[in-house]
Amino acid sequence: xxxxEISKAVIKRLPRYYRYLGELLEHKVERISSNELSDxxxxxxxxxxxxxxxxxxxxxxxxxxxVKYLYNEIGKILGLDKTYNMIIIGAGxxxxxxxNYVKFEKRGFxxxxxxxxxxxLEGTTIRGIQIMTDDKLPAFLNSHDIDIATLTLPKTGxxxxxxxxxxxxxxxxxxxxxxxxxxxxxxxxxxxxLSESLMQLSYNINRKDKKK
Length: 212
Ligand SMILES: NC(=O)c1ccc[n+]([C@@H]2O[C@H](COP(=O)([O-])OP(=O)(O)OC[C@H]3O[C@@H](n4cnc5c(N)ncnc54)[C@H](O)[C@@H]3O)[C@@H](O)[C@H]2O)c1
Fold this sequence. Notes:
- Belongs to the transcriptional regulatory Rex family.
- By secondary structure, the chain is α/β, with parallel strands linked by helices.
- Helices cover about 45% and strands about 20% of the residues.
- The chain folds into two domains: about 10-75, Winged helix-like DNA-binding domain superfamily/Winged helix DNA-binding domain (Arc Repressor Mutant, subunit A, Orthogonal Bundle), CATH 1.10.10.10; about 85-195, NAD(P)-binding Rossmann-like Domain (Rossmann fold, 3-Layer(aba) Sandwich).
- The protein has helices at about 10-25, 35-40, 45-55, 65-75, 95-100, 105, 135-145, 155-165, 195-210, and strands at about 30, 60, 65, 85-90, 110-115, 125, 130-135, 150, 170-175, 190.
- Strands 6-7-5-4-8-9-10 form a seven-stranded mixed sheet. Strands 1-3-2 form a three-stranded antiparallel sheet.
- It is globular, with a radius of gyration of 20 Å.
- The termini are far apart.
- The relative contact order is 0.09.
């Protein structure tokens, strides 16, 4: 497929298309029109057509979209046809919840190491993955190709550990710590703030109340 610049807004919607198409596949739906997809996703059909046209438009007039083909193509665009080695730093509530979520593995995100400063956690396993203390991290990074480091530790710890991850060849950081990390430009970062989503929700509740 020809590579071209796709807007951030479209990229942001792709995981949602991917999820819906995955559900359709599970229900053995082979093709779907933009109108039907629009009803399910609460996105206008023209928006859907416009979005999917970015990738050469996988639809056919009068036939709709081939669900499996579209699912696979969007998966490729999102890089979900590959596997990624991932580590988690900080094995508290959040780190353990992520480590316990099997679906990430199904999407190709393989958790192969978990690290925490707390020596009491050393040797414990989560779904067969060992928790190690931070002092083992440099050697682990030397002997493994790590694509993604998930940071589920407090802010100061995250800031201290980030240079070590960069030095160890980590390509991307999935950052849950409440800090904007100072990283080289070739490191891919995705900051996740659940509280922002909650604030958005709070805004929408109040906007709805005002309409009454
Ligand atoms: N971004 C978000 O949406 C979001 C949501 C919840 C929590 N958080 C943040 O994520 C962090 C983890 O939250 P939690 O509820 O799991 O906390 P937690 O206290 O349960 O777990 C934190 C873990 O990090 C470990 N840790 C501390 N310093 C470390 C270091 N230098 N190296 C490795 N491990 C270290 C601790 O021993 C502990 O096990 C907190 O800082 C919290 O503020 C972010």
